[in-house]
TrEMBL record:
The keyword 4Fe-4S does not apply. This is Bifunctional folate synthesis protein. It comes from the Bacteria. Residues 18-130 form the Dihydroneopterin aldolase/epimerase domain. Transmembrane segments: none annotated.
Length: 339
């Protein structure tokens, strides 16, 4: 029987798939004493949902998910401590593979072709699908993924558990402001693609974008200058869902968090979310440093000169104080001929 792997979405973007099929191990899983003493052959098929873009773009092995490790981890579980149920074996294989960096969803099928049935048969299988939320790894792997987003592509309106006000969805669409930046790779096309990615997310409408600006790095190691813009959206998602969507888009475009204030392919920050003022371990609104960042204030002023930053007041005087530290690269942006 053909096994079909379904799509897995991150921030409205379908991830790629790495498949390892037919992993064969002799093991001792089962309920009967003869199964546990004599053993029998088991097979496993594993599909890992990952983003291959960063590795493929530069043929970089260090950014690839190692399919040999996927096979090794599955085989170690398959041939490890006996379980009564192959359902348990499948669950443990899924968790072992999900624990790998860069894996956000895994599908596992365990075969028991020598199961002690009383009729002639070809195979017995159990197939499961787990992701970093349902697999119990959600909190640990939130960074770089779409935290809080409903990952089942067949359930677009599912909502993560409500822990605090950042998980509360608004009763109607509300405005939010996002800041985009990057200084590694083909930055302008990446920022343009990120705006397009945002517009593809269910529950987010992109309303307007600022001109594109160039800015010098603030803190961190020596690195290239940045390109920056701000984007006005309206959304019916919660703040944490928008945060997760932004981080998911960053991940797709090769964002790595290795050094504080270090260079990056893409950075998307929530600057303001409908005037909310609150702090949690993973999100502070408004952005705590927006009032002093020229690469946020000046593009924002150009887009919305009468805007107000909660807790800091009108952005006009704030932008005026720092406008000489950034320069316009493209206006309008994205260019109508390229959007």
């Amino acid at each position: 029987m053909t096994w079909t792997s379904g799509p897995y979405m991150r921030a409205g973007i379908e991830l790629d798939r790495i498949s390892v099929e037919g992993i064969r191990v002799t093991a001792h899983h089962g309920v009967l004493d003869t199964e546990r003493s004599t053993g029998q052959v088991f097979f496993a098929d594993v599909v890992a949902h990952v983003s291959t873009r960063a590795a493929a773009a530069k043929d970089d092995l260090s950014k690839a998910v190692d399919y040999s490790e996927i096979a090794d981890r599955a085989a170690a579980v398959l041939g490890g401590d006996p379980s009564y149920l192959i359902e348990t074996v499948a669950e443990h294989v899924a968790l072992a593979v999900l624990d790998m960096d860069g894996v956000y969803c895994v599908e596992v099928r365990v075969h028991k072709p020598q199961a002690p049935l009383h009729v002639e048969f070809k195979d017995v299988t159990v197939a499961i699908r787990r992701d970093v939320r349902t697999g119990g790894l959600w909190a640990d792997k939130r960074i770089g993924s779409s935290a809080g987003m409903p990952d089942d592509p067949l359930d677009l309106f599912a909502q993560a558990p409500v822990r605090d006000q950042f998980d509360q969805r608004p009763v109607r669409a509300v405005p939010a402001l996002l800041a985009l930046g990057g200084n590694i790779g083909d930055v302008e096309p990446t920022l343009r693609a990120a705006v397009d990615d945002l517009s593809r997310i269910t529950g987010i409408d992109v309303i307007a974008t600022s001109p594109l600006y160039a800015s010098t790095p603030v803190g961190g190691p020596p690195q290239p200058n940045y390109l920056n813009a701000v984007v006005r959206i309206r959304t019916i998602l919660s703040p944490r869902e928008v945060l997760g969507a932004c981080q998911g888009i960053e991940m797709v475009h090769g964002r790595e968090r290795q050094e504080a204030n270090g260079p990056r392919t893409l950075d998307i920050d929530i600057i303001d979310f409908d005037g909310a003022e609150a702090t949690a371990s993973d999100l502070t609104l408004p952005h705590p440093r927006a009032h002093e960042r020229a690469f946020v204030l000046v593009p924002w002023y150009h887009l919305e000169p009468d805007a107000t930053l909660p807790g800091a007041g009108p952005i006009a005087p704030l932008a005026s104080a720092v406008h000489t530290t950034v320069s316009v690269v493209a206006n309008p942006w994205p260019s109508p001929s390229r959007s």
